[in-house]
Design a protein that fits this description.
The complex is a heterodimer of chains A (113) and B (113). Helix content of chain A is 0%, strand content 56%. Chain A has no helices and 11 strands. Chain A starts with a strand and ends with a strand. Chain B contains no helices and 11 strands. The chains are: A mainly beta (113), B mainly beta (113).
Chain lengths: 113, 113
């Protein structure tokens, strides 16, 4: 089955710096890669996603890149702000599998003012 | 927040008692999911449903059962709760399968003493 590894588990940056979180997946058939942000005590919320027919996607300060050959994808946050502090989860799924969205174990991002 | 509610939001119970958690949606989405979230493990799929009375197991289904008699409700039952089932439980919904965006409910914090 699919396995998703996420690194680093914790990340601390200064406000205004960039943050990068990386994930690798094992099943080459995976074709959908969402990223979720979870603030303390809150529900996970989708911040950006990418499909396997696209190499990069941007939304303001957030971007995701996908390398299908290497089976890894990354989240890039530029000009970080204190409100970006949260736990970020990557995930991967396969269209032929109706139920299995496999999540990484999360990265706790701290942005210091 | 995508019209998803969970009840109860908090519950403390004793080992060996049955527990039922409810997820209710007002979006008329076909797919519904139950996840558990534990420190160091991210989000893990317990069971999911792809229609009324259509359910299947996820990666951590042992000790759990589900039912879906109406589009809007998805119930998760712990037949005989154990301390290892102490966790935060999230329900999620999506219009399509797992290559479609999943929206999460607010979560239920369950403590089994």
């Amino acid at each position: 089955g699919e396995n998703v590894e996420q690194h680093p588990s914790t990340l601390s940056v200064q406000e205004g710096d960039s943050a990068v979180i990386k994930c690798t997946y094992s099943d080459s058939a995976s074709n959908y890669f969402p990223w979720y942000k979870q603030e303390l005590g809150k529900r996970p919320q989708l911040i950006i996603d990418i499909r396997s027919n696209v190499g990069e996607k941007k939304d303001q300060r957030i971007a995701v890149t996908l390398n299908k050959t290497a089976k890894h994808f990354s989240l890039h946050i530029t000009e970080t702000q204190p409100e970006d502090s949260a736990v970020y989860f990557c995930a991967a799924s396969i269209s032929r599998s109706q139920g299995n969205l496999i999540f990484g174990k999360g990265t706790k991002l701290s942005v210091k003012p | 927040d995508a019209g998803i509610t969970q009840s109860p939001r908090h519950k403390v119970t004793e080992t060996g008692t049955p527990v039922t958690l409810r997820c209710h949606q007002t979006e008329n989405h076909r797919y519904m999911y139950w996840y558990r979230q534990d420190p160091g493990h991210g989000l893990r799929l317990i069971h999911y449903s792809y229609g009324v009375k259509d359910t299947d197991k996820g990666e951590v289904s042992d000790g759990y059962s589900v039912s879906r008699s109406k589009t809007e409700d998805f119930l998760l039952t712990l037949e005989s709760a154990t301390s290892s089932q102490t966790s935060v439980y999230f329900c999620a919904i999506s219009r399509g399968g797992t290559t479609d965006t999943q929206y999460f409910g607010p979560g239920t914090r369950l403590t089994v003493l």
